[in-house]
Amino acid sequence: MIQGLPRGTIKQRPEDFVVDEIPAYEPSGEGTHLYIHFRKTNVTTDDAVRAFARALRVERRDIGVAGLKDKVGITTQWISIPASDPSLDERVRTLAIDGVEILEQRRHANKLKTGHLKGNRFTIVVREIDSSRLGDVVNALERIRTEGVPNAFGVQRFGREGDTHERARAWLTGKERAPGDPRLRRFHFSALQSAIFNAVLEHRVAEGTWNVPLLGDLLKKEDTGGIFVCTDVQLDRERAARGEVCPTGPIVGDRMRQPEAEAFELEQRIVAPLIEGVDLRRARSLGEGTRRPLRLRVAELSNTRVDSSVDEPAPSEQQAKGCAISVRFVLPKGAYATTVLSNAFAIVDAGREERQLATLIEEE
Question: Would you say the pTM of this structure is higher than 0.85?
């Protein structure tokens, strides 16, 4: 969160935080898996999936999920359920689950897997903004639209206490016993990967190089996603300024591609102490490693002013609460809405204490 930004409150009510999953592909209409498109309100993805599993008498592990969505909000997404039983389609049509509305169902050939999505479309109402700072907010959102933001992982990645990455380091270095649940082990390891990436990104933000290529950087092409080594700093900085390429940071793993020259030395100074004693080869099943862009491009960003009242307070109370705006944008998978908003607001998350914090890696 950037210091000196105007305060803004999110998630005062579910309809203030609307997320629509953008699938990587549409179900074909035929196959041995039933894809279910549903909308949930104030329900975690895990709780919704468990409810589907109980109601349809299937194993939780057999249900495919592309990505997890926030609890506090109104969100839509797809899941897949094995459907060798021909009666499943009709049973789903008559299914009733609290907080869940089934929108559509279609068959497909394969199970939906983690990361099988293009991204998410957000419509977020930010409330209690000081009216005198609204111009600053609008200017910040315009900068975000044109320049992007540092692509940090959000607090959701690090568990309720914010220490999941430290717990991962403890059992990966043999100081504690590893969790028995393989999903929890992957969650812990992804939190460690995320903390290391954030540490590198934070350093480069402080140095002013999060969107400026260094010699040896592994650069990502914005149009194709291809990765290449920066060998001509001047040329690649010009390309980065035009939005054609951006530097990447480490999602550590045994098979992660390393940068070279100056960029390699920088990453080693930061990363080496954080993975001391961790055998990445033995942890390969938890994540082989990849690269993540340091810059997050925000698509289709727009904003409009909305009625700031929540429970229809008197005019004097409305004025005291400040104003509100609705911010709309699209993010690729693995990116966080709060990362975007925290570059325009000092965010207060009214729903944070209610949120069940659990996530899996969506980049791989």
Answer: no
